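pls design
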């Protein structure tokens, strides 16, 4: 589904034309909209019926909801593909994303997601 011009304008306004990840100035004619939680990562109920009975989908995961859309340069969006923020940070080599440096609010619990994955990686045996 195509994203409307109105929604594209709202996504652009989140950073006033700056890539949400690397901080470069975006070309108004050549920029991407990134799904922070990729559509490819949309959650599905577990196969185990005991777990599936308790499963509740997150209505904002992998959707075109404005809270999941962020302005991105083509390089960052193509590098991120369907990676989580944590994995994209590792792949890109960025120590901090632009939105973190600016203190911008991104997806609810994005920093929690980053922290929990980093904590889990540090506590693996």
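designed seq:
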């Amino acid at each position: 589904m195509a994203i409307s011009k109105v929604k594209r304008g709202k996504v652009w306004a989140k950073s006033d034309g700056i890539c949400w990840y690397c901080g470069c100035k975006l070309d108004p004619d050549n920029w991407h909209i990134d799904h922070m939680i990729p559509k490819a990562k949309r959650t599905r109920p577990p196969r185990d019926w005991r777990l599936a009975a308790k499963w509740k989908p997150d209505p904002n995961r992998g959707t075109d909801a404005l809270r999941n859309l962020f302005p991105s340069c083509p390089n960052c969006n193509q590098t991120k593909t369907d990676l989580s923020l944590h994995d994209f940070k590792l792949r890109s080599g960025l120590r901090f994303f632009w939105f973190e440096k600016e203190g911008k609010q991104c997806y609810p619990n994005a920093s929690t997601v980053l922290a929990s994955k980093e904590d889990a990686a540090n506590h693996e045996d």
